[in-house]
């Protein structure tokens, strides 16, 4: 079992445990705000299952129907997560509206808050692990799940603080108002998850800082070449696809050009996680004024 799959499986278990704790907190208090927190945990479980399936599919090797691999399965999972987050926010708004029309006092608030705090602590520990591993493994599914849990932790803290205020002031209308604020926070987070994932599906280029690093690596490892041009990059799940044209002297033998390309590919793969490099070699007759000359000083490609 890969590390990514193991953490995705762990998210399912943690999600189920947190869901049970939060619903228990709602049952003992009758708080709409705590109900909103519990409803987001339903999304956590659903998206954890989707992420588990996605990372397993994404790990499959290329086949005849998917020659470039299955990496975008993780992006589809992240989009599904964003949609479910938005749906959870809408359900929270509905519950809050009902509670506003018929506010009720809370029962056993101390026990409910203790259960919710325990659930929030588990989410805090796990979201930090997910973000760390998601970044290390370049996994959009784990990273999206981690950001979602971070949002859940923030909303849980706000909900707990709000319920404490309800208990101290006796103002029952505050309970559904807190639920509405939690729903707005969840809705905003869901929009960001969808936006970032759609960018990946649309073959968005890598961030500018990563592009600068790619250019520097090519420049530092392309001694013997004359120029690079038409550099293109894109993300697909954990993979980073890098394509460019490499102009070499016309007298260079095929085996020498091949060795030069291997050196550049090795350098990129050593620094860029899961890099997939394609180099189109051209003779010096294809030299372009718009291209970037290769210099030992590490000029940009």
From TrEMBL:
Its main location: membrane. Keywords: Cell membrane, Membrane, Transmembrane, Transmembrane helix, Transport. InterPro entries: Cation_efflux (IPR002524), Cation_efflux_CTD (IPR027470), Cation_efflux_CTD_sf (IPR036837), Cation_efflux_TM (IPR058533), Cation_efflux_TMD_sf (IPR027469), CDF_Transporter (IPR050291). Pfam families: Cation_efflux (PF01545), ZT_dimer (PF16916). Residues 207-283 form the Cation efflux protein cytoplasmic domain. GO terms for molecular function: cadmium ion transmembrane transporter activity; ferrous iron transmembrane transporter activity; zinc efflux antiporter activity. The keyword rRNA-binding does not apply. It comes from Brevirhabdus pacifica. This is Protein p34.
